[in-house]
Predict the structure.
Amino acid sequence: MKKISLLFIIALIISACNKDVKLKFEPQLIEKSEDASIVINYPKAIGTKAIAEKINHQIEHVIASEMNMAETHENNMSVTEAISEFDKEYKAFKKDFQDSSQKWEVKIDGEVIYESPEVICVSLQTYIDTGGAHGNGGVTFLNFNPETGAMLDQNDIISNQAQFKKIAEKAFKDQTKPKDNNETIEDFFFGEGFQLPSNIGFTEDGLVLLYNNYEIASYAQGITEILLPYSKIKDVLKVNP
């Protein structure tokens, strides 16, 4: 009887520990080069089924959307289907332009860049080349609630939008280098006042505001990142990093 009781207690301890560790991530790699050249590496959530499935669905949806060449938006397209469609478009291109040596290319590299009990941040770096002078690249941040798997938007992260925007605007002015002393904030934002980016991500050093190419004025070379240390914004965040 004592032996059975001991085994029962051990089982309860193991079960409790497993409940604490709800998620982990493992790399998911897809490579193919028979037609278009495609390399996709992204973190796949493993753990509590409902939570992991919700996170994986959102990550794969963003990847598929980035690759979608059609004008219509396919909400439920899988990564496998997106690869198939991309190859199909490439074959049609080669059929119409048989003399072209251009090979279409997709590179997507994802990683978990921040993880805490309140938030998981995944970064997806994308580069797609379908001809022309150069390919198109960008970075997307995806923030998740690790308890539910739900993706967090800005309203889920920021408690006081007006105050947060003031802090962010000051940081933007401090951290960007104007071309000359006459340059104003409107020169960055196409004649308008300061705007928050769609991409906000959590890192060990603070919250990152990320503007991809062409999201701010065209003379801004490459990606623009603004770092907001948590000590500066803790009073205007809903999430405690």
